[in-house]
Design a protein that fits this description.
Elements lengths: L3 E4 L4 H13 L3 E4 L11 H7 L9 E4 L2 E4 L1 H12 L9 H31 L9 H22 L12 H13 L12 H4 L1
């Protein structure tokens, strides 16, 4: 069977997929898409996204199946190769995985992504870091981290005493945080940092 193809440039969204693919033991290859030249808006790539206006990375090809959106790709990899990362056989545990997947998407990432954009993307686009945006989102991130710290004093991982995709989905953006001057924000939350 041919390996899956993951299209994209190594951003935190593409890396989110890589983490899930690796943990699920999926055979895959990364096909680079140059965002700087607009390759993600090319007809070939738009056809991978099926919904032409998006033109986003990552996109995944598994045989004749094309997926986009990093979280959907990550869930697919787990469902196909390592279902225990979603705890789909246990209603209560899978519900907790779902809760923390949603928290990651709507709380953690919504606070962290603007920080990453300001430090890592805006300069590549010729702009300068907007420190006001960074400071506002650092305050939001700290509130999220307080919730995480409280949760992780009660259980080993976010969804319970088992590792799941909910934990793995945090890896990529968190690693990119270490490329900013604000990696030390985690020092105040020892359970999160651990």
């Amino acid at each position: 069977m041919a390996p899956m193809k993951l299209y994209g440039e190594m951003t935190w969204n593409v890396m989110r997929c890589v983490v899930a693919l690796e943990e699920a033991g999926v055979e895959y290859e990364i096909v680079p898409i140059n965002l700087g030249t607009g390759e993600h808006k090319s007809p070939d790539h738009l056809n991978r996204n099926l919904v032409k206006p998006f033109g986003q990375v990552p996109a995944l090809q598994d045989g004749g199946l094309y997926l986009w959106e990093s979280r959907a790709i990550s869930k697919y990899a787990c469902r196909k190769n390592k279902k225990e990362l979603l705890k789909e056989g246990n209603l209560k545990e899978s519900a907790m995985v779902d809760v923390w997947l949603e928290v990651e998407a709507h709380q953690y990432s919504s606070a962290l992504n603007p920080i990453l954009f300001e430090y890592l993307i805006r300069p590549k686009l010729g702009g300068t870091c907007n420190l006001k945006v960074v400071e506002q989102n650092l305050e939001k991130l700290k509130k999220v981290l307080e919730v995480y710290e409280a949760r992780l004093t009660k259980c080993k991982y976010l969804a319970g005493d088992f590792i799941s995709l909910a934990d793995l989905n945090h890896v990529s953006a968190t690693l990119f945080l270490f490329a900013t001057p604000h990696a030390s924000v985690l020092d105040a939350y020892p359970h999160v940092k651990a």
